[in-house]
Amino acid sequence: MASTRMKLINLLENNRAEYISGQELSNQLDISRTAVWKHMKQLELDGYQIEAAPRKGYRIISNPDKVSQNTLQWGLETKWMGKHLHHYDQVNSTQDIGHELAKEGAPHGTVIVADEQLKGKGRKARSWHSKKGEGIWMSIILRPDLAPVQAPQITLLAATVLAQVLAVEGDVEPQIKWPNDLLIDHKKVSGILTEMQAEQDHIQYIVIGIGMNVNQDGSKFPDDIRYKASSLKESTGHAWDITKLIQKILKKFEHTYEVFLKEGFKPIKLTWEHYGYRIDETVTISTMKKKWKATLVGIEADGALQIRNEDGSHEKLYSAEIEWGEGGYHA
Ligand code: BTN
């Protein structure tokens, strides 16, 4: 059931060209004219520009740049993804909030978005730079009916979602570097961190964290990652609307998840391999014991990377150092 505020925004959005009188709004929303006026003041505080003309009424001039629960949910074309959505100006990590909410019973598809993270977490206990308003710092709670060993499929699925959204919206050629880094022109623009709470044979919930560098200028990246990280703005030459991008990601995520439920992992695997970085190419791989050359073939349903050795044998890799070549950095 839409809130009065959402109904009000809908009415104003759907009549952008015309004014709607206070009386009309009060009738349609079944609230007093004073209450209408109070809602308008709140919308203005949230960044909506609203014109109020005497004897004509109200109309929206422009939507807020600011990301908020309201702007994120307005125009979100999903059935279940993001229907429960929490937006914060500043948090330590959206992952931590995801775990708290999941433990309190938050439903499948709950989304947590922050403008800024003070302790953004990356994979392998690295930190993730998450400055205010510069990117997407978001966690999604999922409750898949899967065994814990299948959890990597969800991460791979998420990577295909991001790749497809970037390809369509950004007109760029993203690639997925195993297991789940999103690259544009060999530089990382996005990463995924999956954390899970599970029993022996059943996943209770997954918190899937998506970090995407959106509007940073290249010079803004710290020295240690400057040569290997990029943002969408850097790659495309223009700033991006973070709200719209989040909405596109959530919509694509919902759709891809439903395809996964219906058709299994196969379509995800094919999409992943389509975008896979250095697939069909030879790279140098090293483990504690040896270093050798092999060709990257694709991914497996358990998240492993499949390689073909020079003697033609196939092997599954779960963790290894890979010399990716360009950029010269490691997995
Ligand atoms: C990686 O190391 O590539 C994964 C980075 C994941 C970062 C995101 S930002 C939103 C969510 N909250 C976090 O603290 N981390 C993830």
From TrEMBL:
The protein's Enzyme Commission number: 6.3.4.15
Name of a matching Pfam family: HTH_11
Gene Ontology molecular function, alphabetical: biotin--[biotin carboxyl-carrier protein] ligase activity
Catalytic activity: biotin + L-lysyl-[protein] + ATP = N(6)-biotinyl-L-lysyl-[protein] + AMP + diphosphate + H(+)
Enzyme class, first EC level, given as a word: ligase
InterPro entries attached to this UniProt entry: aa-tRNA-synth_II/BPL/LPL, ArsR-like_HTH, Bifunct_BirA, Biotin_CoA_COase_ligase, BPL_C, BPL_LPL_catalytic, HTH_11, WH-like_DNA-bd_sf
Amino acids binding biotin: 117, 188
Entry keyword annotation includes Cytoplasm: no
Keywords attached to this entry: ATP-binding, Biotin, DNA-binding, Ligase, Nucleotide-binding, Repressor, Transcription, Transcription regulation
Domain BPL/LPL catalytic: 73-261
Location of the DNA-binding region in this protein: 22-41
Cited function: Acts both as a biotin--[acetyl-CoA-carboxylase] ligase and a repressor.
Similarity remark: Belongs to the biotin--protein ligase family.
UniProt-recorded name of the protein: Bifunctional ligase/repressor BirA
